[in-house]
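Person: I keep going back and forth on a fold encoding question. Show me how you would write down a chain together with its backbone fold. Please set it down just below, with no commentary around it:
Helper:
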Amino acid sequence: MNRWINLLIVLCAVVAILVVPASSHAVHLDITQSIEVNGYFDRNNPMSGGSLEIYLIDENGNEELHIQDDLDENGLYHFSPVHGYEEYRIKIFDDWGHQDEAIINIGSGSSQLYSSSGDSMATKIVAGLGYMLGLAGLGMLLSARRIKKKSQTKK
């Protein structure tokens, strides 16, 4: 039984090491003034071939799907503004569930970017600490069970 617990602990450690790089994997969305959409996982990893939806937003806040297309191999997409519309909602996503969206307003002369899923560094640190504390708790639980079992067999 002790061998299985040790194997489980080693397996958890290996999984933890392999999962940590994937936990920082996210999608980011940059939009320039010329309405260029740039989708990427990190600065060196573009979201090539990702899907894109662009919605027109009227003065009443109603949305209408305007473009449904794919990002190019560099994670880029260019589009021209539609006359009479100043606000757009842009959504990018892939087949793995990564997604991000932003609302831009081009009427003010400078775009305002509102990204929905760009986690801050503080959020990532707290999530990482929670992950490590969870693993530590699992280790303590297994250790306590082992100690309890040893004390019961000595009686």
